[in-house]
Prior knowledge:
It is a single chain. By secondary structure, the protein is α+β, with helices and mostly antiparallel strands. The protein is built from four helices and 22 strands. The protein has helices at about 1-55, 120-155, 160-195, 240-245, and strands spanning about 60-65, 70-85, 85-90, 95-100, 105-110, 115, 195-200, 205-210, 215, 220-225, 230-235, 250-255, 260-270, 280-285, 295-305, 310, 315, 325-330, 335-350, 350-355, 365, 375-384. The strands form four sheets. Strands 1, 16, 17, 18, 19, 20, 21 and 22 form an eight-stranded mixed sheet that branches. A six-stranded antiparallel β-barrel has the order 2-11-14-13-12-15. Strand 19 and strand 20 (about 350-355) form a beta hairpin. The chain is elongated, with a radius of gyration of 49 Å. The termini are far apart.
Amino acid sequence: MASQDDNIAQSGSSARGLKPGLGSGFSIAALFMLVIVIGVSSLRAAGADEAAQSAQPISVEVFTVDYREQAEITELFPGLITARRESALGFERGGRIAEIGVDVGDQVLAGDRLAQLDTRTLRAQLAAARAEASAMSAQADLTDVTLNRQRQLVEQGHISPQRLDEAEANAAAAHARRAAAEANADALAVQLELAELNAPFDGVITARTVDEGVIASPGAAIVYLTEAGALELRVGLPAREAERLEAGRAYRALVAGRSVEARLRAQTGVVDRQSRTVTAIFDLDAEAAAVGEVARLELPAALDEAGFWTPVSALAEGRRGLWAVYVLTGESRPYTLEPRSVEILHTEGGRAYVRGAVRDGDRAISAGLQRVTPGQLVSPASEG
Length: 384
């Protein structure tokens, strides 16, 4: 009995020892549940605040749609700016190049020497030709003296007229030989001049193809010269647009984002078979642009289509390749946004001429489309 009572006592003491541990576990679980409840309440409160904020109308910039029967637009026609004169310069006769006095980028004046051939052989030939011309000249002078004497003897009756005819023929032949020798010397002198390559006009060297010591072929380009101070713009225009142009009148062109003056010099008046355009040539100031730049000629025109102007920033991509504007709908503030499809008829600068499912007098968002969505409540800040 004693041992049984001891076991019961031990069991009771063990049970009493477990009670504190169980109470600690329950406290941790309750604390964890409390944290979860507080977190969920916070999320619900944040969601409620966000919903409340989304319900508030957003202030937006708007413009009023103004339909018109046609639009005054500016059409742009691209063209290339070139120098009025560009030459690939070379020697008429081949030979070894003795000197090239210019390089790419050098500014030259008309008459400046650009290159020189080796002329030693040519100078020797010219000296021989001039010597031969001198000999022929002396022979011609001698035949002239002989002819004069023969004429005197014929007058005195000492010789027959036949001798005089022979003297005249000899004199004529001697004069012909002298002329041929002098012409040969002149031709060699011209070749000597052509052995020096000079600039035909003021300009800048844009390319150099060979160096000293190279045997140049006849007509092969040695340097490329582009005229400085004289630029022109060549533009291909539709025939109807070309007919409207006036020679000597100044027009505007866009070059690298800046506006320059282009004065019409001439137009071909002939429609090109490939491009189906008429070429018009405009003169530009030398400081206005650089050779090789692309310019866009501005010509006013009328677009005979009903539509309205809208900022490009008011256009959003719509379905099936169309565009859309966000129109304010509703009777009073706040208004609801509704996308309306439009078709772009023309764009220039930061605006577009469009038409579509928009009525005259409607108000639409002019910018800030990234801040709004269809069906959102908005309030106009100002109209433009």
